[in-house]
Amino acid sequence: LENKDFDEALDIYNENYDGDENKTLIKALEQHIAGIKQSFTDKTAEYEIVKLELETISEMEIESLEDLVQDTIDYVSKVNSSRAAFNSAETFFAAANYSEAISQYKIMSEEDPDYEKGKSRLAEAINLYRDSIVAEADKLSSQSDYIGAIKVVKDALGVISDDVTQAGD
Q1: Number of CB atoms found within 10 A of residue 167's CB
Q2: What is the CA radius of gyration of the chain?
Q3: pLDDT, tens only, 113-135
Q4: Beta strand extents in the chain (DSSP E only)
Q5: What is the dihedral of CA 50, 80, 91, 97, to 10 degrees?
Q6: For the chain, which end, N or C, has fewer CB atoms within 10 Å of the first or last residue's CB respectively?
Q7: With left for phi above 0 and alpha for psi between -120 and 50, is residue 107 left, alpha or beta?
């Protein structure tokens, strides 16, 4: 497993343990799983490698490790999706496409170590989006395009419906 030779690890396990739960092996695998999770959290291991490694351990079908392995798989999957959403949001944010940035920041998982950073960027994107919507609606209303102004605000409410900022704030 440490050498990332997952097929060989599975073969060795199947040849030597044949369903018997070896306490030394289980303890070593528990520590290895913890290390896998930590290296993924620290961004020193890539998702695909971590996923493959955890799937290999899962294929060993060690009953006492099933919950730990599944919990770790769920964690890395959620965090990986959250990281992808954050990266996508940052791209939209840089392009001043705040509505798309907001929707991506909202996808982030609380389990993601960068969640607080994403939450902060979400608040920033909401403020910038709100300001741009107000400016656009003001411009349209000053041109007597009240229907257009209402549409802009209505569309924005679909993106930031939970925004509690009141008019004039």
Answers
A1: 5
A2: 24
A3: 999 999 999 999 999 999 999 99
A4: none
A5: 170
A6: C
A7: alpha
What's the whole-model pTM score? 0.77
62-112 pLDDT, tens digit per residue, is: 888 999 999 999 999 999 999 999 999 999 999 999 999 999 999 999 999
- Name every residue whose Cβ is closer than 8 Å to that of residue 28 and which is 6 or more positions away in sequence: none
| Alpha carbon distance 70, 23 (integer Å) | 20
Which conformational region is residue 61 in: left (phi greater than 0), alpha (psi within -120 to 50 degrees), or beta? left
For residues 65 and 29, is the Cβ–Cβ distance under 8 A? yes
CB 53 within 8 A of CB 34: no
Contact of 123 with 162, CB cutoff 8 Å: no
CB count in 10 Å sphere of residue 51: 16
Neighbours of 162 (CB within 10 A): 8
